[in-house]
Amino acid sequence: MDFEPWWLIAVPVLFGLGWIAARVDIRQMLSETRSLPDSYFKGLNFILNEEPDRAIDAFVEVAKLDPETTELHFALGSLFRRRGEMERAIRVHQSLLSRADLPQSEREHALHEIAHDYLKAGMLDRAEEAFLQVEHTRFAVSAVRALIRIYESEHDWPRAIEAVKRLRALVDEPVPQLVHYQCEQALSALSQKQPKLDVAQAALDAAENAATALKGQLKGTAYQARIAILRAALCRAKGQSTPERVYLESVLSDAPDYAGLIASDLLDNYRQANQVDQGLAVLKRHYAKFPSLDLFNLVFRELRTQQGYGPAWDFAREALRSKPSLLGLDRLLEAELAADKGKDNAPSGGVSVPEADLALLRSLIHKHSQRLDRYACSQCGFEARNYYWQCPGCNAWETYAPRRLEELR
């Protein structure tokens, strides 16, 4: 390789330029370091020492000294919100929104953050207003999801349904609870003093369409049971007993675990047609395959009323022998006491238990069984005596099994 004389000039020049660049970088770094407040380094030190409260106080001081640090404001606001300090989170984001020089993108970010602050604080009106302001920005998907939660918590089902449609226009994302929104709209129409049957019909048709579109993404059979139950209620409001029975019996075949929710209505339907014995036979056959406490209670009471002491207790003994239940025994004793022990139609030669002994036995059992006589949310554990399609505790859908606590253990 030949030596070129110009290398003697080029090499020192390149070395000098590198030295100058390094000096400039070092000076810039030192200048930036000196410009950082001491509180910033104190905050970092507190974080390293696992003292988050003192670190927050230090970073708040930095934010006061240097209002231009928008990222630090956002970080502090999010941290306050996660810690449940909603007033401080709102103040941090309000201070950003009050700046006239804040860029539009940062203003949208601040609006999105303060909307979440309001939502977590339970200030739903303000949260809705803020989310609507960012609905057409880069935060659109998050904002529409939050609006759905707001409308759902307010039971504003028409607006919740419209928000779901807007979400589906933004992302290809299934929203299984849409079926329940339509069902809630139908229930609201049926529950009015003057039932709006056309509105209920349209809502249930929409629920069926939504369920069909979400087929394969819906878990379990709760949605089928609920639509059938509401269809039956609509037929009952129209005085159409035959289709009502068809819908109620479809629950027995398509969603058998939910039989306890419709058993009473189904038996009433048979009773109106003077076919109560046939209705009892249907429920007894279903109980033999899918036993449940609610169904046991209804069948026993109806047998006790219609056929007397013997058939009712024969059913009860066989049911409790195959599936022992403290709560079932409690229901049985309750019904027997309500029927005044059934001495009038007890079989001859049978053993009659004194009413006082039955009352004592029932009081002892009831004391322990009443805590089992509840439905429970599988997500948050919230317990309730009534069945809910949406948990009142955590607002999750379809988290209540249609069985009492004792049956789930």
What does this structure look like?
This protein has four domains: 67-172, Tetratricopeptide repeat domain (Serine Threonine Protein Phosphatase 5, Tetratricopeptide repeat, Alpha Horseshoe), CATH 1.25.40; 174-290, Serine Threonine Protein Phosphatase 5, Tetratricopeptide repeat, CATH 1.25.40; 291-370, no CATH class; 374-409. Helix content is 69%, strand content 1%. The protein has helices spanning 7-35, 38-48, 52-65, 70-82, 86-97, 104-121, 124-133, 140-153, 157-170, 178-190, 197-213, 222-238, 241-254, 259-272, 276-289, 293-306, 309-322, 326-338, 355-369, 405-408; strands at 375-376, 383-384. Helix 4 runs parallel beside helix 6 (104-121) and helix 16 (293-306) runs parallel beside helix 18 (326-338). The radius of gyration is 34 Å and the shape is elongated.
In terms of DSSP E residues, the strand content is under 5%
The main sheet comes to: 2 strands, antiparallel
Q: What gap, in angstroms, lies between the N and C termini?
A: 88 Å
Structural class by sheet pairing and helices: mainly alpha
Task: Give the integer mean of the pLDDT values.
Answer: 80
Helix content: 55-70%
Principal-axis shape equals elongated
Q: What is the number of independent domains?
A: 4
User: Which CATH architecture of the largest domain?
Assistant: Alpha Horseshoe
CATH class of the largest domain: Mainly Alpha
User: C-alpha Rg, in Å?
Assistant: 34 Å
Q: What's the SSE pattern?
A: HHHHHHHHHHHHHHHHHHHEEH
Which blocks of ≥5 consecutive residues have pLDDT under 50? 23-37, 344-351
Give, in spatial order, the strands making up the sheet with the most strands. 1-2
What is the CATH T-level topology of the largest domain? Serine Threonine Protein Phosphatase 5, Tetratricopeptide repeat
